[in-house]
Amino acid sequence: MRRRDSWVALGLAAFVACASTAPPERSAAEGSPRPRLEREDLMEVALIASGYDDPTERAAARAELSKRIAPIVAELSALPSLRDRAARLLTRLHGPGALLGSYEARATTLREILEKGRFNCVSASLLYGVVGAQLGLEISGQLLPTHARSLAFLEQGGKKLGVIVETTSPGGFDPSPEAMAAILKDVALPVGAGDRTLVSEKGLIVPTLVLAAATYVNRGSLLQEQGDLKRAEAMFARAELLADDATMRGVLRDQRAALLTQLAVDDLLTSDPARVPRAYRSMVAAVKVAPQDPETRQTVAQNLRAAAERLIAAAADQQDEPAVNALVKDVEGLPLDPSVRASISAFAWSEIARVRGKAGDYDGSLAAIERGLLVCASSADESVKGTLEKNRIAALRMAALTTAKSGDPDKSLDYVRKLEATPGLSVAERSEAARDQLRVLVLAAQGRYEKKDVRGALELYRQAHAKAPADKEVAHNLLAVLEEVVVPEINANRCGTVERELAEIRKLAPSEELPDRAEARCLVGRAAELLEASDEAGAVELLRKAARLRPKDGPIRQNLVVGLTKQAKAEARAGHCAKARSVASEVLSVDKSLGRALVAEVARCAKTAGSP
Questions:
Q1: Is residue 468 domain-resident?
Q2: How many domains does the chain have?
Q3: What is the CATH number of the domain that holds 403?
Q4: Do 12 and 305 form a contact (C-beta atoms < 8 A)?
Q5: Domain range holding 434?
Q6: For the chain, what is the radius of gyration of the CA atoms?
Q7: Which 3 state secondary structure label does DSSP give 145?
Q8: What is the structure's pLDDT at 60?
Q9: Does 84 have pLDDT greater than 90?
Q10: Residue 169 falls within a domain, yes or no?
């Protein structure tokens, strides 16, 4: 089951629109085709893409931007080296009081730069290209599936090479791999245990103008996140118009999917349950964009799964199985790899199992787990499979113990047998299953005892003792129940019904007096029956056995005296004088006063009947 109790949960992968998971490369973009130089009014296009649609507002923004970059242009234009201009431009755009103040993933337009000094990789690269054009620099954009940056084409060794400019950092001009990693560490979200994403320089080199198209894509993605689908589509249409060809449009779609993913991850990382539905909607939109880049597709699918699982878990927390099913059905309609859909479905079955288990429907819970494991076979998802297998063990144990407490030992033991037969149990789990079986037997026995079914409790305690003969608590309870079974039967002179129980008590507790007391009581009862039938000799023999078992028991001694007296008198009447005198002597050894009278009485036997 999951991140609660014994249910195990799945993790979330982070992804950002300004970083990629590709390995780092260092070489400049040598031999890469350079795009055409900007002929359009780049600043005007950039401002329109940044949301300044109103001419008056746009003119004011243009005047403000021109005013702020004028000192930079004047200062750097005096530098004879274009490389120095390109490098110094980046540092002049950053820092306190500069245009680029602080990084923010959602700050995708020049408006955020002008109004708040906030930027991301797209807006920073667009600004760098706008100002670079006024310095006579040949600046291009570079779009990767999940990142944007600039390239400055400069003469190096008689060739023009594209020098990487990571515009989000003042140290981003022609950075070493180590410097690039440090830069991206500040703008990328974590993807693992302390790791950060790195970008490859392989990507599509585009006119800076196309970064304005990326701005439209990002703006559209933000609108889509807010639910304003009509305006979002208008932004995407504008982006398509600025892209030169199908390749560029494909990269823009990848950028769109990447930003939607980042927006979703931002929501998920807040741990705010209210933002999870929006994250899921963003990921559904990212999936429907159908990105072309394999890494982007993989990351989109991964985060769609994370968002879906958060929603599924939330629905399960509310015991809302129909909502879980509805989410799975929704995912099944998305253009995802079948293995991804299978993984989400398997997770959903694990959560349905949790819902059913919480409601006490253990059979239903186990059925859901089996369905999930069956789905896992087609997803090859070892993580979900492992969770389901652990949850199956937890569900079987919970079912066994709960049904045992309710007094249904047969069903609870059936759950234990299923647990023991579960494939892949570790040694520790098998040992725990054996302990569970003992626990189930004891709980079931207690349940039956509380329902006054003493015989039923006895049978279960016998099974528990056979499984754990050294368990003192089990032995104690077994002895107590045996005594409860024996005493009423002995008191009712039904001694033959508890012979097995008496033998068990002797074996369990050799020093226990109850078996001897009970047997003596039974002998006395049977002797009384023989006396009623005038079998005095038979009665006396039983009473002698009782007295040997309980030599200090006064009532048994009295009964023996009574039996012997009756036998002596019967023997005298029959003329068996010697036998009568022998019996009378035995009475005398037990009770002197009664014995003397009896001896005197049977002494007359020879005078009346003769001595045999």
A1: no
A2: 1
A3: 1.25.40
A4: no
A5: 331-451
A6: 47
A7: coil
A8: 97
A9: yes
A10: no
